[in-house]
């Protein structure tokens, strides 16, 4: 394609000489032997090598760019391709997120009824379009029919509730069944939150297909189905996964990113910022989330680009306007009442609650996953999902707050009660009368504007029930709102007491129960994910007011401390460990006083380290060594007697080169010598030709000494992204430490099973 | 003190045994030989060693904490001391920033006149206190007397202007003279912006006294004096310096931070976030500034703590309320009109202007500094400041916009004209009449609410003049406002044209000139400092609206690209290079294809590398080697014949240990052997006793091979914070690469003078 197509387009404009340069540029990284420098599935990349490759490529382009105009243009387009890619990721992810929101909204409402004006309207849009709606009862209109009304034909009666209940469960079941079947049939990687896997991928692990187009399609559809079926899940994880899939697919159109695993991971880091940006409508929070939680290698250039992509996505989502209020998310809020210093006590209490809940949730979740893994429960995933969905739907329908989708619930809980609010949560005595009720009521005692009425009490009971089986952010929001209303009533009823003096002033609210809901949500999310800065910034972006940062921060800090005291791992790390992924956590410092010699292979008593010598080995000997061992690379030394290090060669490169030599190089037989040396040793003319492999030899492998403390070794591995490191004593090669060895050692030091680390 | 005081306080509560543990804990890091492990002035620290020291300390405390309650309490207080320190830094910096704002405001007004009600009132407060002020003319009141009124005694007349002019210049001169004298006499480090030095310090350099108490006191006073004298300078640099001084002083009260250079630098990173937080009232922006611009080693723990400190400082500043509007900064704004897509063109133009201006400013500034350094101009700093001040004051007084302080100017430029605004910049025809003018005017053509009036034209001319000699953010703000007003008038006068259709709707503004001012300010600041994310986030925090991020981002991006095309360095980096500080830039990748062998010392032809052998050298030989060379460390090898690496020893540690041995160890003479070995070699009983120095030997020095590409070496130095690295070939020690060698090499590759790197 390349040789044929490009000249025909450009030949009229540019000279032949330019053309050749252009083609050379495009072929820049075509390897001499195909396959060298690539990785196998479920292996870790070598960051140093990938970054070197990219620098070589950049150097080449820069040098060429001085030679001709075409090459200069190519170099400029290459420099801007990163920005273009970010733009595309932002647009695509924003559009997908908007589509998911609209579809999920519509399908959630479909469980309850249908719009006669058009099947494609959800409840809210259906009644907007209707003229017969009053502002007070804007969710009731004749065009919207519940399933019972449609099927039985009357609009009142005792059987209606049962029919609606049944239809609700049927739809939920259908959605959940479809979702689980789709995942199992087409894209097994689409299951789960995705963040643990993405963290591992970003740290350098390769899982082919995890971010492919099938995963994207199925994940998008199943996310809609799962949300609509009422299964409780956070949207941020799946949206991060969706954004990363978009990024990975779009990377294929840019050579720079397609060919380089390290560069691709920079893009994926930005994509995870995009995912959070559209999930919460918080671009800055998204970037900080990516920086704090997900990313492994996050250079400043990526920071700036992530920010750009996150903004593009947020604005794309806004122009799609899925919630009809030109806000990015359903639960955007504006508070007006300031908070009082004493309120920090309930906020800290919410933090403690969030921490406890987070620690409990992580343990329960991991225990369930372990149960599924180790017992026969794991063989019937469809059945499991169906049962869980039926149970959820059965319990959810009777209570108003569990029947709605969790975004709607959170939105209602965060809401600050206005004068015109019809929600039961705003069922204060004075609000039930007229719109100006609060002004009238102040005449009585100057304050009583916010005494709880019967509606509010009902709502509180229902919320308390909902608390029992709704997970994630919503739990925190419910707990917060309950505490908030209690505090409010306390302050109103005892407003003459010293401690509450000054809280309630005529005409204004005493405290904001919605703020408590938000603080509670932040505390629970913090307890589960152990986010800190990004969590506070996300919540700040939701409220837009700097003054509410202090309560959020107090709760997030308490929650993290409490949760950390009960278990150091976040839900993501716990899942990474459960799955045995090779992930070297950057947050936790390695605190043990072991040395490199304690970790390196071979151990004392083991057979000697398998090494190659720089000369003197034959093709057959090397092939036997490869067949006999499973190591992913071999050190090359001067000779077995003088094990002084020359370099390191990767197994995959060696295998490919030997196959290539056997196939393409004339006269290569099993007895051909293999040479890693710079200049050929003298050989008899009758000897078979040598296979020269210095080109695949890494001449600058990383080394440490046997006395190097493991804390420093771990630091080097983390910061430089190594796969392996050789251990030297006084110039002699003694052993090797791989990432897997380090992870096993860390597991051992923490009294866990070192064999739980599965991959390289 | 320790032995005497602590028991007397606590002896009644805790047993003797606990006491001993507590004292042991406090003495934890008292070195056996004092001085070992410390650094000399103008040297670079070894990050790896410092972090190891801290981990050792932490391990010790954790182990002890299992033994007794006191030790457990100590370990908990140790864990929380970081948070306490952050709280104190936030409080102290916030209070200082508030004080500086208030004092500068008062002294700026003092140049024009004095308040009769009380000398300590500034102009605004003076007239607030007065009852005779109307809302329209709130800055005119009889209590506030200009100097001419006070001295001549009449309130009208031709001579008044001249007297006021003279007094203005006198005061400016006095302030500037005081400032420069104070700096010269007491704290020479207090001069300059401070950010280049702080960047260098954070990267591991030691400048004793740069963050000391004298610097803090003098910097605070001179900042007030300089701002009041009208010398144009940005406040963010000095405030970052002030916050870092606070942090450094407060570190002295916490052993953990006092004794460890790496830990102290974590705190300083947080302090620089605090500085920006109080300068712009933007805590999140401050943290990102520290992350993006200033910090070298910024672990996630520091991110979270910086955020906490920045928030505390912002709230402290707010409770001091220096501007009387419960805002953090003078130029907080709220815009209401949305922007149009087409407006991106002027925004990008502002970005180009900002980039050009930034590049020009950096060159001019560096050229001036170089001139001052290389000619006799540098010998008369007082004269220089006096002349500049006189010139500034002379030119500034006649124009209203240059007479006010630059914060006030920026505040006025950012301002969105309300109905009641009395500023000349809001001198639109319809505003000059009544408060409801805009409503009346709309009756005429439905739009004309914002046609420029004569006042606005005057303001525009004055601004255009001011543009000529005001530096920093204000230039951008002026240019932006000018462009904004032009665009506004264009849109109003041609509102029937196709491209402006829909911009102006009745009763609302067409566009927001204040937004243009903000975009322009961001562009210029971006051009000078090359900030990106942090700049946009700071401006976002000033406006509070997510929708204005896109214009800011467009301008910041353009500005950075344009400025980078004209010169890669920001003002900070240019000053670092000018001063020859050893700073390894983390943003710029090393792009050249050189190898470690090209950089290492000794070069080909040079004398051999100075090494020590692990045995066989005498005290005298080592002392002679130390006297003959200036290297800051020596590799230790097995023998001269077999140069296989054993370890590395620092010059300072060696000198101190030898002196200590000569003084305290019995029988040490010049012929005593020096041993770095683990076990003693056999010696004759009559030989002098050996000096055993294995304890000061670093057994795990970092090594690279001669074939290692320099790009990887640079990466290792940056990421691990090394001072030096040894170069090995096939197990033989060949040379050494220090940070200074790398910097010299980088200077050489960029065609600069390698001898401009002055320090180690």
UniProtKB/TrEMBL annotation, chains A, B:
GO terms for cellular component: early endosome; endosome membrane; Golgi apparatus; plasma membrane; synaptic vesicle. Its main location: membrane. SUPFAM superfamilies: CBS-domain pair (SSF54631), Clc chloride channel (SSF81340). Residues 600-666, 696-754 form the CBS domain. The keyword Ligase does not apply. Keywords: CBS domain, Chloride, Endosome, Ion transport, Membrane, Transmembrane, Transmembrane helix, Transport. The chain crosses the membrane at residues 69-91, 165-190, 211-233, 239-255, 267-291, 341-362, 382-401, 463-483. CDD domains: CBS_pair_voltage-gated_CLC_euk_bac (cd04591), ClC_3_like (cd03684). Gene3D superfamilies: 3.90.1280.20, Clc chloride channel (1.10.3080.10). It is a multi-pass membrane protein. One of its GO terms (molecular function) is voltage-gated chloride channel activity. It is found in: Endosome membrane; Membrane. Belongs to the chloride channel (TC 2.A.49) family. This is Chloride channel protein. It comes from Sinocyclocheilus grahami.
């Amino acid at each position: 394609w390349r040789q044929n197509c490009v000249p025909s387009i450009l030949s009229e404009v540019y000279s032949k000489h330019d053309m050749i340069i252009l083609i050379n540029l495009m072929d820049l990284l075509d390897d001499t032997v195909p396959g060298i420098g690539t990785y196998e599935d479920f292996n870790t990349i070598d960051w140093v090598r990938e970054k070197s490759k990219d620098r070589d490529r950049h150097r080449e382009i820069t040098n060429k760019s001085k030679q001709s105009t075409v090459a200069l243009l190519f170099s400029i387009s290459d420099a801007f391709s990163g920005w273009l890619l970010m733009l595309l990721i932002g647009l695509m992810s924003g559009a997908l997120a908007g589509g998911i929101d609209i579809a999920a909204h519509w399908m959630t409402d479909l469980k309850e009824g249908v719009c006669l004006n058009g099947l494609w309207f959800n409840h809210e849009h259906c009644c907007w379009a209707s003229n017969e709606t009053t502002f007070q009862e804007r969710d009731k209109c004749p065009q919207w029919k519940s399933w019972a009304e449609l099927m039985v034909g009357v609009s009142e009666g005792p059987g209606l509730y049962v029919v609606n209940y049944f239809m609700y469960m049927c739809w939920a079941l259908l959605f959940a069944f479809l979702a689980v079947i789709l995942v199992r049939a087409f894209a097994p990687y689409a299951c789960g939150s995705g963040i643990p896997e993405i963290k591992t991928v970003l740290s350098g692990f390769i899982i082919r297909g995890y971010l492919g187009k099938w995963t994207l399609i199925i994940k998008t559809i199943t996310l809609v189905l799962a949300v609509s079926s009422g299964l409780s899940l956070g949207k941020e994880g799946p949206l991060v996964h969706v954004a990363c899939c978009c990024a990975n697919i779009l990377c294929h159109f840019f050579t720079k990113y397609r060919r380089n695993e390290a560069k691709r991971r920079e893009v994926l880091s930005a994509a995870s910022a995009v995912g959070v940006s559209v999930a919460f409508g918080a671009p800055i929070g998204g970037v900080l989330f990516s920086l704090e939680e997900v990313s492994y290698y996050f250079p400043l250039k990526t920071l700036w680009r992530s920010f750009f992509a996150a903004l593009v996505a947020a604005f794309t989502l806004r122009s799609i306007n899925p919630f009809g209020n030109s806000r990015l998310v359903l639960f955007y809020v504006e508070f007006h009442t300031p908070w009082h210093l004493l309120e920090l006590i309930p906020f800290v209490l919410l933090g403690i609650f969030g921490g406890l809940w987070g620690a409990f949730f992580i343990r329960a979740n991991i225990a369930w996953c372990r149960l599924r893994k180790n017992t026969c429960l794991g063989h019937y995933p469809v059945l499991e999902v169906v049962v869980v969905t039926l149970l959820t739907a059965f319990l959810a329908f009777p209570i108003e707050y569990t029947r709605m989708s969790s975004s709607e619930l959170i939105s209602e809980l965060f809401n600050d009660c206005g004068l015109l609010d019809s929600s039961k949560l705003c069922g204060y005595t004075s609000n039930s009368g007229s719109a100006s009720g609060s002004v009238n009521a102040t005449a009585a005692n100057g304050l009583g504007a916010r005494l709880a009425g019967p509606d509010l009490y009902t709502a509180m009971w229902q919320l308390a029930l909902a608390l029992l089986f709704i997970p994630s952010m919503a739990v925190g929001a419910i707990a917060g709102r309950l505490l908030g209303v209690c505090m409010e009533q306390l302050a109103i009823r005892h407003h003459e007491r010293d401690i509450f003096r000054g809280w309630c002033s005529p005409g204004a609210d005493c405290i904001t129960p919605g703020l408590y809901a938000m603080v509670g949500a932040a505390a629970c999310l913090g307890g589960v994910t152990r986010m800190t800065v990004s969590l506070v910034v996300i919540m700040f972006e939701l409220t837009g007011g700097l003054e509410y940062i202090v309560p959020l921060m107090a709760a997030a800090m308490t929650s993290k401390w409490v949760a950390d005291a009960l278990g150091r791992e976040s839900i993501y790390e716990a899942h990474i460990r459960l799955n045995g992924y090779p992930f070297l956590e950057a947050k936790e410092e390695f605190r043990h006083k072991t040395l490199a010699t304690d970790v390196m292979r071979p151990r004392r008593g083991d057979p000697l380290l398998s090494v190659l010598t720089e000369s003197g080995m034959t093709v057959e000997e090397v092939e036997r060594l490869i067949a006999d061992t499973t190591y992913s690379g071999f050190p090359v030394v001067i000779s077995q007697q003088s094990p002084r290090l020359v370099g390191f060669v990767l197994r995959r490169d060696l295998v490919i080169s030997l196959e290539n030599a056997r196939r393409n190089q004339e006269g290569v037989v099993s007895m051909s010598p293999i040479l890693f040396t710079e200049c050929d040793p003298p050989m008899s003319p009758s000897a078979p030709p040598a296979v020269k492999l210095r080109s695949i030899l890494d001449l600058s492998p990383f080394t440490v000494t046997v006395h190097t403390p493991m804390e420093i070794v771990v630091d080097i591995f983390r910061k430089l992204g190594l796969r392996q490191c050789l251990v030297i004593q006084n110039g002699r090669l003694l052993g090797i430490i791989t990432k897997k060895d380090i992870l096993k050692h860390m597991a051992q030091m923490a009294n866990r099973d070192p064999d739980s680390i599965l991959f390289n």
